[in-house]
Write a structure and sequence with these properties.
single chain, 101 residues, alpha+beta, four-stranded antiparallel β-sheet, two-stranded antiparallel sheet
């Protein structure tokens, strides 16, 4: 299990969401974020996607995100991070592990 974190511009969210849906990745958390860049010395509005995936979907999810950013012509504006997940729990069903994702 992995957590995929993508930081992108708000205008890129819809194309990334569609690309993820094509890869059968449909559950994610989308939040507003602010990024600081020393070059401009100002805060910039960004969007944060958090996507928990089973190992079988990790490559498909990261490839979908990067392909959508590259297709939009502004791939330098996005960043993608992956982190291992030790455990996942669905509280409403008391399910644990990969099935909880």
């Amino acid at each position: 299990m992995h957590l995929v974190i993508a930081v992108l511009r708000p205008s890129q969210v819809e194309s990334v969401r569609r690309a993820l849906a094509t890869a059968n990745v449909t559950r994610m958390t989308i939040g507003d974020a602010q990024g600081w860049h020393d070059r401009g010395g100002a805060l910039r509005q960004e969007t944060l996607l958090e996507i928990a995936v089973n190992d079988d979907f990790l490559t498909a999810a990261t490839q979908a995100i990067t392909a959508a950013l590259e297709a939009g012509g502004d791939s330098a504006a996005g960043r993608v991070f992956t982190l291992p997940i030790g455990e996942a729990v669905q509280l409403y069903r008391t399910v644990r592990g990969p099935e909880a994702i």
